[in-house]
Amino acid sequence: MILGDVLLQVTAAVPEFDTGRTGFMLLATSLVMLMTPGLAYFYGGLAGKRNILGIMIQSFVSMGLTTVLWWMFGYSLCFSGTGGILGNFDKAFMHGVNLHSHFMISGKETNLPEYVFMAYQMMFAIITPALITGAFVNRVTFKSYLIFLTLWQVFVYYPFVHMVWGNGILAEWGVFDFAGGIVVHAVAGFAALASVIYVGSRKDKASPPNSIPLVAIGTGLLWFGWYGFNAGSELDVDAITGLAFLNTDVAASFATVTWLLIEWSREKKPKFVGLLTGSVAGLATITPCAGFVPLWASPIIGIAASTICYLSVNLKNKLGWDDALDVWGVHGMGGVTGTILLGVFASSAVNPAITNGLFFGGQALFVKETIAVIGAAIYGFLFTYLMLVLIKWITPVKVDEQEEIKGLDEALHGEKAYDEGVL
Fold first, then answer.
1. How far apart are CA 389 and CA 393, in angstroms?
2. For the stretch 284-302, what's the b/e string if a residue is b when 16 or more beta carbons lie within 10 angstroms of its beta carbon?
3. 0.90 exceeded by pTM
4. How far is CA 175 from CA 165, 349, 389, in A?
5. What stretches of 90-209 show up as alpha helix (H) in DSSP?
6. Are 58 and 145 in contact (CB under 8 A)?
7. Residue 38: C-alpha distances to residues 27, 84, 345 (Å)
8. Domain extents for the chain?
9. Is residue 270 within 8 Å of residue 290, measured between CB atoms?
10. Computed from CA positions of residues 309, 44, 192, 251, in that sequence, does the dihedral angle turn out positive or negative?
């Protein structure tokens, strides 16, 4: 057999993948990956100067540990099998996932390599538990956080990924979530609230942001990465991809302006941190809707996002919940709001994959989305609280008073973000 014949046989054996689609999804994967460092900068800037590294390391460690878990069994539990609450271990340690395996939708092969889909979903798994950390800044031991990070993914994140995106029980029932209103923001936001209630308040609640410019850099990276988060969730390059991209930007922009105006009217000064917070609220809220609603709905969703999230943050303050960086008010309530509004504005004319929402005469979708997101929020809250109680049997969850006063950067990590002489 001559070399040319060998090359022809090898080429024929390799499945044909769409290079454009594959390239776009690798770009989207990279954008979502960038969101976790962006989150670290966002939270790091908002934290007090003695707790910058303590909050940032919690995001960065997820990039390492979550990847290990995802490779070992996380991907398999999320995307093996159909129906039920969790998948199986058929793809544990990437068994059967190779150069020639295709990403499957409803049992049918696509022209997207499974390696690429696996990597894309891994970036979602990395950032979701990291969102929670802003709620309990400078109060939780690093060892307990590592246990929390592992258990929360296995028992909260993986089940909801499978149920909604992995052809599980919620998908079979007709629940939709374009990029993570339920799967990411609602469960993480209400897990954050449970964490706050369990660990209690900080000794020094009047801890101003150490670097608002760092918050701005983090917000910019999050907004930039969110295009991969939302537009990439179409898993293809088509008109819906473009719609998801544009809906994301428009909703975030309207939310940014709305928060700025609300806070300006109440406090008589335009606040930069408020503007940045509003943009994140808009991004979180449009996430479940991005590829399912018409463009004219995104301004309404953006305005609703900032209005509801702003009121939620004020409610949190009145109730005395020490959610330091407003994870519940922004991500939790943003995810709930966006998912319910998906049930209002979803249009099968925009995306044939979904049924019509309430505005277009589809009452059933509205009911399903509302029940699903409320159920997810309750489960995320209750399981997180129970998990923290169990973790305390293994290792202390909350740092002691001396460590909290000293700051976790030095007390737990033996490092400082800045030379004290320059501050």
1. 7
2. bbbbbbbbbbbeebbbbbb
3. yes
4. 10, 18, 31
5. 114-132, 142-152, 158-165, 169-173, 187-199
6. yes
7. 17, 34, 30
8. 18-86+107-401
9. no
10. positive
Who contacts 199 (Cβ-Cβ below 8 Å, separation ≥6)?
136, 139, 140, 388, 397, 398
Tens of pLDDT, residue by residue, the chain (423 residues): 444 443 344 444 445 899 999 999 999 999 999 999 999 999 999 999 999 999 999 999 999 999 999 999 999 999 999 899 999 999 999 999 999 999 987 767 889 999 999 999 999 999 999 999 999 999 999 999 999 999 999 999 999 999 999 999 999 999 999 999 999 999 999 999 999 999 999 887 777 899 999 999 999 999 999 999 999 999 999 999 999 999 999 999 999 999 999 999 999 999 999 999 999 999 999 999 999 999 999 999 999 999 999 999 999 999 999 999 999 999 999 999 999 999 999 999 999 999 999 999 999 999 999 999 999 999 999 999 999 999 999 999 999 999 999 999 999 999 999 876 554
Top CATH class, 18-86+107-401? mainly alpha
